[in-house]
Amino acid sequence: MKIIISWLAYNNDFQNGTVDESGPTYNFHNYFFNEAQYDKHILLATETPENLRITKLENKLKRDFPKHNIECKTVSIEDPIDLREVKTKVEPILLDLSDCEIDIFFSPGTSIMQVAWYICHTSLGLNSRLIQVRPAKHSQSNKPERLIIDVNTSEIPKGVILKQKNSESDTYEHTENYLITDSIQPVYDNAFKVAQTDNVTTLIQAETGTGKEHLARFIHENSVRSNQPYIPINCSAFSDDLLESRLFGHKKGAFTGATKDKEGIFKKTDGGTVFLDEIGDISSYMQQALLRVLEEKEITPVGGTPEKIDVRIITASNKNLVQLCKDDKFRWDLFYRLNVAPLELPSLQERGKGEVEKMIDFFIDQKQKTLKKSAKLEFSKEAKKVLVNYGYPGNIRELENLIERLYVFAEEEVMANDIPNFIKKNDNKKSLSLADLEKRHIEYVMDLYNGNQSKSAEALGIVVNTLKNKMEKYGLKRQDFVK
Ligand SMILES: Nc1ncnc2c1ncn2[C@@H]1O[C@H](COP(=O)(O)OP(=O)(O)OP(=O)(O)O)[C@@H](O)[C@H]1O
């Protein structure tokens, strides 16, 4: 299929508010659409105030050229001189046409739109050409001439980064909450590239507590959607019905208890980003529904009718989705849709002791501020060594909680004695089995309550006898937790 794609020329396509037949778009249809054998013209316009104009132009073109296939699309662009925004908005439109021969009609549109076309043409690796028209008055033949702009396309795939500097930022934004150490620098670099390419779905695979949500927020904050809402949701925390209603919303009367219309998360984040955590846990029904959202870019509230939405979807899983697909528990088509730009975070243990130490220092500084402590926590040499050598099965989250807890309970200098027993006893072999996590959590809570089993059981949400049985099963002794 051969496509011509262009922006509406807000000034040149019109004269005194009516369509100008000597304007670039009308002229193109008059002289070149048939001659160059195009199958379709995709005509783009920013949402307002050109809406009315695009309808006028569309009606006129369809009336005068009834055989020409014309599709008009409005694109929501907040700031038409923001190159990054314009580029990220046209990019997915072009990528959707990757099977076609694409001629980009370069002339109409603002200069920023032209630069965006140029970058997309050179970097997306599509079968595209840049076309210009020389007006009749400047051509020797006295007729308009169609010219092909000859520029080499890049060998580099679509990730060409566009850095538009403003007075406040250089590259990454909002970095104060992120410690980006050497081993995760490449992941954050790739996440930054993902952020620059709007609408590309991302799947973050990593163990629990390694910073998947943190990374998703980083993508949102560094994207053109950063001023729009960002909502994270843990899919595994909801039953199927509840998840459906949470994500898609519902209409009054859709089910018992639906006393009024309720907007879902996709609608609330329209224009922004949704982060779906634990995506491997959703049912096959929800997988199907999500696939529809990705393919049709529309949602259907429970008891309602389809509605268009514009959200970036970032997903994460601590399960191996490929294995889930092989086991027929996850749809391959959804997996491929989600996995367009995969990102993987290492566990804290994989990151090495040097980085664990940097993380400890980072949280010592951060928690001093957030907990409003006048003095910074100091560590004896031995205490620091214990912390650095521990395996952290719960990854960054566990390390962060530990520092917070030490701020609460320890004196200004933390001695090895102040560190919970289960950390001191750590044999540095890490296991993520549920049983192991349960054992560690019981140790953590028992340590927190100084070996008081009633309080520990209450905090764990189980009865004392169950706690005693579990402790026996794991070979834990109450007296080991009494300080
Ligand atoms: N690069 C980082 N710099 C500073 N803090 C971080 C970083 N990555 C993660 N954290 C902190 O670690 C904690 C756990 O991170 P996060 O919630 O993103 O992990 P997760 O992988 O999504 O966990 P889960 O699998 O349990 O949902 C959070 O409090 C987060 O602020």
From TrEMBL:
GO biological process annotation, one example: regulation of DNA-templated transcription
The keyword Transcription is assigned to this record: yes
Ranges for domain Sigma-54 factor interaction: 181-408
InterPro entries documented for this protein: AAA+_ATPase, AAA_lid_NorR, Homeodomain-like_sf, HTH_Fis, P-loop_NTPase, RtcR, Sigma_54_int, Sigma_54_int_dom_CS
Keywords: ATP-binding, Nucleotide-binding, Transcription, Transcription regulation
Gene3D superfamilies, alphabetized: 1.10.8.60, Homeodomain-like, P-loop containing nucleotide triphosphate hydrolases
Domain of life: Bacteria
Record GO terms (molecular function): ATP binding; sequence-specific DNA binding
PANTHER family, per database record: C4-DICARBOXYLATE TRANSPORT TRANSCRIPTIONAL REGULATORY PROTEIN DCTD (PTHR32071:SF57), TRANSCRIPTIONAL REGULATORY PROTEIN (PTHR32071)
Name of this chain's protein: Sigma 54-interacting transcriptional regulator
